[in-house]
Amino acid sequence: MPPAGHGYCLPSLRVKPILKRLYLQKSWSELLEHTDTLLAQGVNHLWLDVQWYAWQALLKLDADSVRADILCRDMKGLLARLPGLETLAFNDGTPFADEVTLNWLNERVLDEMAGWQDEPVMAATSADEVLSLEPEVLTRADDEGIESALNWLQAQPGYTTSRNRWLMRLLMARVSEQYGKNEMALHLLAELDSRAREMTLEQWKPELIFEVKARRLRLLRGKAGRSEAEKNRLLPEMESLLAGLIALDPARAAVLCA
Fold first, then answer.
1. What's the domain range around 64?
2. Taking the alpha carbons of 141, 145, 150, 155 in that order, is the dihedral positive or negative?
3. Number of domains in the chain
4. Which of 9, 201, 235, 249 is in the most buried spot, having the most CB atoms within 10 Å?
5. Is 28 in contact with 57 (CB distance < 8 Å)?
């Protein structure tokens, strides 16, 4: 990551007023759609204000905080890999995070970072403990590259049950998405979705299945935005995912309906 003095190109000056207007109008669905579009464009992923608007929209739209918590967890990963990111600015002096966003980061993300990063990785005594490897995987991905980090994760001993292997793939998908490896994340999420149907209810948590389908739908919608032909090609798959989300949790899935 280059030092702050190198400068970063500011995204379109028209974007912030649009986000603010949608927020003030409480147009939460439109606000979430707009932030999803912005974050799919590489130039915007460091603009932390956009993440704050997305988080606000999720809190207002959802009956629970599951998707908002996923966003916060992804922010934890980003700030763990790029410490001090929130203090940088674009080349015209516009901060990556304004005062409101900084307060959000301090209250919801940064105050939990130390405990999250320092969480020890213990021997596997329960299936869910594989997800506690996420901080170590992110650190290795930052230092050695994502391929090396995923190889390290795959080589960890003790995770031999079908549920552990499923959770390991979920962790790989999360990390791949955070590093912009969207195609790899999509392949992993598709495998997770397919394998979940082969597992009994006792072997998986509905909220994790919802996460898999929601992440996959979000990535596919990003791909579909590239062209009308791509949208038409992906539409059946997106509709199938949305139907699955509605079956799992109609209230939470309602916000994802176009």
1. 13-118
2. negative
3. 1
4. 249
5. yes
